[in-house]
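Support request from a user on the community tier.

User writes: "When I paste my structure tokens into the form, the page sometimes reloads and wipes my input. The last time it worked, I copied everything first. Here is what I submitted, just in case something in the input itself triggers the reload:"
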């Protein structure tokens, strides 16, 4: 019986690294935007929640039928609507002699009983997470756990929403009831847990964002967002045959916009960082030096190479020196970047020359509530 549950659990653990990788980008964006930094304890809990949800989904989906053209279920109905029908299943299948108490231990090995127990245990962690991490009340916990159970049951009875010709498991109202009971049991257990673990709403109380270093991961996310925004603009200017589309777009987005937005681009705003110069506000000269070196020199030679390739000049022998120059520039910058990544005392050359750096921006205070972040 336990093998039936160990099989999907093993698949959940095997798929967790891939799911965690996909989860990391939105996780970082939300944490930077909401809290201003990533707290390791909060991250640990959320990745544990992801692992739990993977296990829960795999437990209700696996094992799958060998073919999408599966045979219809032997049952005459795709649903079991009688509440507490599992009691009849237990009484019908049990080998317990109710007049002999020592035989009661057999219940722990019987399929009908174990199925009820595992249906309850399936959602206990869900209820615990809802109360401890998401800080919900008992009614939202009840409704969310019931909703999760109905999602599981609907997924099964629809053959994973039409992927399979027929349902390979039946909708059972008892499963919804026992799952919901498990969520509420987890909600109660979380009260004991909450007294022994750090409070989630107190994690940020003593954190001074002004003293925190802006990581390269955070800056990389801002860079990614900025170029997701900027690439269509460069392409549009090129289609409109505007002269020097790359230079115009870069100057407008990375120099003019931060100058008037106190050192922020859209990407930096999203992850709550901004450029600072030698004064309280970043100056135009500092922006010109910083982005002239980064996007004028390094980005410029790459943009020139892309432009020549788009015009069909990439196959010419005369372009070989430019290819070597682009490779040399990119290789030198990559080595410099790696050295800065592994040595916090080193500063990127364009930051050193421009006298600029990054700071975390505080969360906007709500109107009418001074002193509350």
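"...and here is what came back when it finally went through:"
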């Amino acid at each position: 019986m336990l093998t039936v549950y160990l099989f999907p659990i093993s698949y959940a653990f095997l798929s967790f690294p891939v799911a965690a990788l996909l989860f990391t980008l939105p996780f970082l964006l939300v944490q930077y935007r909401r809290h201003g930094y990533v707290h390791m304890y909060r991250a640990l809990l959320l990745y544990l929640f992801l692992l739990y949800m993977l296990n829960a989904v795999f437990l209700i989906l696996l094992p799958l039928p060998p073919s999408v053209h599966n045979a219809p279920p032997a049952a005459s109905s795709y649903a079991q609507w009688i509440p507490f029908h599992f009691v009849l299943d237990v009484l019908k299948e049990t080998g317990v002699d109710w007049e002999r108490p020592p035989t009661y231990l057999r219940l722990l090995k019987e399929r009908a009983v174990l199925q009820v127990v595992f249906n309850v245990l399936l959602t206990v962690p869900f209820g615990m997470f809802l109360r401890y991490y998401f800080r919900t009340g008992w009614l939202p916990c009840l409704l969310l756990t019931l909703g999760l159970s109905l999602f599981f049951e609907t997924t099964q009875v629809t053959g994973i929403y039409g992927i399979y010709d027929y349902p390979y498991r039946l909708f059972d109202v008892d499963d919804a009831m026992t799952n919901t009971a498990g969520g509420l049991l987890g909600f109660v257990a979380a009260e004991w847990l909450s007294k022994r673990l750090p409070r989630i709403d107190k994690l940020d109380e003593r954190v001074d964002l002004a003293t925190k270093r802006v990581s390269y991961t955070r800056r990389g996310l801002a860079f990614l967002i900025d170029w997701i925004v900027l690439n269509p603009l460069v392409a549009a200017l090129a289609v409109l045959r505007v002269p020097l589309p790359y230079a115009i777009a870069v100057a407008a987005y990375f120099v003019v916009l931060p100058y008037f937005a106190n050192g922020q681009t859209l990407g930096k705003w999203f992850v709550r960082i901004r450029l600072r110069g030698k004064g309280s506000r970043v100056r135009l000269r500092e922006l010109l030096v910083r982005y002239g070196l980064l996007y004028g020199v390094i980005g410029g030679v790459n943009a020139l190479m892309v432009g020549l390739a788009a015009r069909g000049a990439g196959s010419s022998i005369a372009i070989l020196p430019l290819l070597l120059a682009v490779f040399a520039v990119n290789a030198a910058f990559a080595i410099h970047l790696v050295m800065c990544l592994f040595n916090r005392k080193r500063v990127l050359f364009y930051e050193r020359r421009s006298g600029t750096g990054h700071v975390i921006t505080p969360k906007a205070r709500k109107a009418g509530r001074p002193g509350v972040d």
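Agent notes: The reload is a front-end session timeout and is unrelated to the input. The chain has two domains: 2-202, 212-360. Residues 367-373 have pLDDT under 50 and may be disordered. Escalated to web team.
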